[in-house]
Amino acid sequence: MYAVVGCSDCQALKIVEGRPETTQCPRCGKRRKFEKLRKFVETDDEDHAREVRSSMLANRQDEGEAFAELDSFAEMEAQVEDAGVSDEEYLEASGIDTEEVEAAAERVENRSASTRGTSRKDTVLAALRELDRPTEDEVVAFADERGVPADYVRDALQKLARRGEVSESRGRYRLL
Fold it and tell me: With 60 as the cut, is the pLDDT of residue 91 above it?
């Protein structure tokens, strides 16, 4: 449910979704109980609520006739989606290979999906657990495949060694 409500202090109009216990005016910041607010219209259609609010604002500025000549919100949104050139057309006109862009985006998405939920530090620790006494370069390569920068890996290895969580002997690391 959507309701077009007005603020009794500053006369701002806004759309409230649902039936919250209280709501705050976006203009003056005054918080009021929803049940005490004046509701100009209550509807299940968000577009209808937007139309009513817009019409009321236009009438306040003596622009009701001009507003009446406009298309509905749904029709204007459809027109906006059809206006202009698509991203693909723009890139092609700029001389950019859209298939290459899509392939790069997919690579980035796959890389971030494999590391999602895993911190950089966790990736370094996983390398130390999974690799048998790895060198710094092996840990860097492991982490790089998972999107962790080499500089971060080197710093993390040094910090882990200082804290005694990792030992380093002859260039090989071991998790303690």
Answer: yes
